[in-house]
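DATA SHEET
Item: assembly model
Revision: 1
Owner: S.N.
Input lines:
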Amino acid sequence: MIRFAGVACLARIATAAALAATALAASGAGIAPADRRSGYAMMAPETRRMQDDDAENPGMLWVLDGRPLWTARPAPDAASCAECHGDAETSMKGVAARYPAFDDGAGHPVDLAQRINRCRVLRQRQAPWAGESRELLALEAYVALQSRGVPIAIDAGPRMQPYLRDGRAEFERRRGQLNLACSQCHEDRWGLHLGGSVIPQAHPTAYPIYRLEWQSVGSLRRRLRGCMIAVRSEPYDAEAPQMIDLELYLAWRARGMTFEAPGVRP
Amino acid sequence: MRRRTLLAAGVAAALARRDADATPADVRQAVALIAGSATVRDGRVHVEIAPLVENGNSVPLAVRVDSPMTADDHVKAIHVFVERNPQPFVATFRIGPRAGRAAVSTRIRLADSQSVVALCEASDGSFWQGSASAIVTLAACSEEI
Amino acid sequence: MPGALAHVVPPKARRGEIVEVKTLASHVMETGYRRDINGIAIPRDLVRAMRCTYNGEEVFSAEFHPAMAANPYVAFTTVATESGTLDVEWTGDNGYRATASARLEVE
């Protein structure tokens, strides 16, 4: 087993794995339910403490910005979120933990950010917020907070199956110059070190997260694009269907784990 | 106090113009600037930082000073320095007897593995210092192309 | 006004007890050392100072340099003397100013 793997060593893993595995790669065995662990459990104590205390969690600055976005009208003639959905602490409880979810209007699964923007465009008749914009992340953080402590539980019924299948294929597909699949690090080598960092299992239990590397709150899509760039592959566009499929699969893979947004991660 | 702050800013600006990173000598110079002719003694100042830092962008740091924090005997200021960032100054925290304890916590940036030095200015004009060192590594998967 | 948070821990205390004040300000703390994709230095943009008053009297102040992390977090202590408000104010480059308050009940 390779104990330490710097970025330069990823190529060695890739070569070794290429000799051992087929083109579609990966173990396929998955992580046993008893072994599943949030990235939280693999952080240093001082970083965990940053997440645990709302008075210390920088993500709460985005929640602070999100609260008035829920209650304020975006325009004099457009309803606020609160006018349709009431008090977020009641109506949004558990909602973020069910996303990505099938959107009947769109005809396919959407993630929470897309759902917020769909409401914004279709019901509030406003221009959608740009991906990773302060407003979108703030409202997403505020809504996500209302699911803190709730088990992740996405709908895995028949109409979701094709997307889940595609998402799993994405997770196990080799990509990029380093020819690595997500599963090779996050299923086969979680807990080992990549440089000074511990490889997590890649469960989306805490999004949107305040990432110390970004010095900002960001979405799961941003994190996935970052990973793809890191293995030197062409990252999917933020709105690409493959991205949502992957988010969906990751959420299914994390089913039953506790939602902990807004999280802090290295 | 204001004059010292302005002088400190001047030194900071001068150091920032240099292309080289700060060095331990720069920290000693910055400490000397604040302490003036007073002897800086080791002790009483406890610098708490993780020995292996998770991410150099945001490093939790706590500084505690052994002091009764009474009107007659208290800490007036805690100055924090780093040895190997672009320049040595981090922050100055000003407290007094109303604090009850000489203890501040914050988050700092560390560009590289290095020592963090805390200089404490006491009400009787004495200066005390303590330090701790931390190892900083780059994030393994960089998103910057 | 940019976002900022202040919490007193615990928010209810006995007279003479030492409480902790935890503060967070939303700010990028641009060091001035970073370069953009064209190699041009991104201008420095920092929170420079913060101060805290307790029922109007200053109990804490600080000066920041670029080595302070983004979204600066500072926690300090104060002795609970009387019920009232801890008011925190941050100031910085480009006219930056933010405020946050927290109540402290003292019995």
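QC remark: Chain B has two helices and nine strands.
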